[in-house]
Amino acid sequence: MAIVEVSITPLGTGTPSVSRYVAQAHKRLAETPGLKVQLTPMSTVLEGDLDLILKAIREAQEAVFAAGAVRVSTSMKIDDRRDRAGTMEAKVKAVEDLL
Length: 99
Known about the structure:
This protein is of the alpha+beta class. The protein has helices at 19-30, 50-66, 88-96, and strands spanning 2-11, 36-39, 44-48, 71-79.
């Protein structure tokens, strides 16, 4: 089980607004069975099998191209912990418990 933060940014769109492209990427991610998706103001966080996540990110990137972007920049941060299972909620709770 992995947790991945991803930001897919269209370039060359002629406008500073990217929300319509982000929506297309998010729809593609949300359609992926077995993938937990959490939209945030600056990125999207995914939880699931790492191979599934990487495939879904590739499909989301293609959705942005299909929406009209001529260039796409994708950044990822991967948390692939093997000693125990973790979830997005558990990571947040661990910090909140210390506050």
